[in-house]
């Protein structure tokens, strides 16, 4: 790496024979060297080390897969890649996830909307651009490594204690995560219309919990609401993920499928690859397909100016 020169450095599994502790610190040392040399230095590194991958940010990692003599490159959550490489024997711990969240919050300011996973984050970022064009989003969007960790994050005092006076939101899918949303103690309700997204203010008044809005499509609607328009009341009876907001009958068989349930019922399931859906299908939709998210965005924006 040379100062003042545009350089690309290729590293082919340089961590293969390092002690796991050294593997974990290897990337940090590479970054320190490249930052010192010049911002114009770029490093491409291949690795099969779970220790190395857990020390990197999600947006820095790409997964290369070979199938039928074809190489595909996808973006996936760090936790999913570690789980894939280790055949499920290694997972990103809650402690590691917490460290990542703390790093994000320590290096940013302003309101933050937390989502369950990276694909939710990608879809919301696309939705903002479709709905508001070039307007700068006044809040950050950050995934929280799953619904369980998201619930724990907002049920403990850590956020309130370490990041006081910052407005934060937790957005849950209207599926099994309904139980996580429902379990968070509230100070009061902000929105009680499922079509707009159920929103409640939590006991710490700068924190809010949001449940995905329910589409008007009757097939999807009954997967979360009873005939009276009220939630069934249990996560096991709720079946709307963020992908369902963009459901249409013409994409059954590609992104969605229909399955039979007990007593002659039918359920629409998202069966596509979440990352491909977020990165390739969502950006091609027209802005009107994102209107269902506007009330939620407008609510979040209205709270971003809270002193």
In short:
This protein has eleven helices and twelve strands. The chain is α/β, with parallel strands linked by helices.
Q: Structural class of the secondary structure composition?
A: alpha/beta
* Radius of gyration, taken over Cα atoms and rounded to an integer in Å: 21 Å
Number of domains: 2
Query: How far is the first residue's CA from the last residue's CA?
Result: 46 Å
Write down how many β-strands occur, each being a DSSP E stretch of 2 or more residues: 12
Q: What kind of sheet is the major sheet?
A: 6 strands, mixed
Helices, by number, come to 11
The H/E string reads: EHEHEEHHEHEHHEHEEEHEEHH
Rounded mean pLDDT is 85
User: Widest sheet: strand order?
Assistant: 6-5-7-10-9-8
- Tell me the β content: 15-25%
Q: What is the share of helical residues? A: 25-40%
Low-confidence stretches: 87-91
Shape: globular
Describe the structure.
The protein has 307 residues and is α/β, with parallel strands linked by helices. It folds into two domains: 7-92, P-loop containing nucleotide triphosphate hydrolases (Rossmann fold); 98-304, no CATH class. The protein is 33% helix and 20% strand. It has eleven helices and twelve strands. Strands 6-5-7-10-9-8 form a six-stranded mixed sheet. The longest helix has 18 residues, at 20-37. Mean pLDDT is 85; it is low at 87-91.
């Amino acid at each position: 790496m040379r100062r003042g020169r545009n350089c690309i450095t290729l590293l082919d599994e340089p961590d293969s024979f390092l002690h796991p502790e050294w593997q974990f610190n290897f990337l940090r040392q590479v970054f320190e060297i490249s930052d010192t040399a010049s911002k114009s230095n770029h490093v491409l590194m291949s690795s099969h080390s779970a220790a190395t991958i857990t020390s990197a940010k999600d947006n820095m990692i790409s997964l290369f897969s070979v199938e039928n003599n074809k190489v595909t490159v996808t973006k996936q959550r760090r936790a999913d890649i570690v789980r894939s490489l280790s055949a499920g024997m290694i997972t990103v711990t809650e402690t590691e996830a917490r460290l990542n969240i703390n790093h994000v919050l320590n290096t940013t300011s302003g309101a933050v909307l937390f989502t369950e996973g990276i694909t939710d984050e990608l879809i919301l970022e696309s939705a903002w651009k479709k709905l508001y064009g070039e307007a700068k989003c006044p809040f950050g969007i950050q995934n929280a490594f799953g619904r369980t960790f998201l619930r724990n994050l907002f049920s403990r005092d850590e956020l309130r204690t370490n990041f006081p006076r910052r407005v934060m939101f937790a957005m849950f899918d209207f599926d099994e995560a309904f139980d996580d949303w429902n379990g968070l103690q509230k100070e009061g309700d902000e929105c009680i219309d499922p079509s707009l997204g159920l929103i409640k203010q939590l006991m710490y008044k700068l924190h809010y919990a949001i449940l995905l809005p329910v589409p008007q499509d009757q097939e999807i609607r009954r997967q979360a609401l009873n005939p009276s328009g009220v939630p069934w009341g249990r996560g096991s009876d709720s079946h709307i993920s963020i992908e369902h907001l963009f459901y249409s009958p013409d994409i059954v068989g590609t992104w969605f499928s229909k399955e039979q349930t007990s007593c002659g019922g039918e359920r629409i399931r998202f069966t596509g690859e979440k990352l491909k859906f977020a990165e390739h299908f969502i950006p091609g939709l027209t802005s009107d397909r994102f209107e269902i998210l506007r009330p939620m965005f407008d609510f979040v924006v209205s709270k971003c100016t809270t002193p």
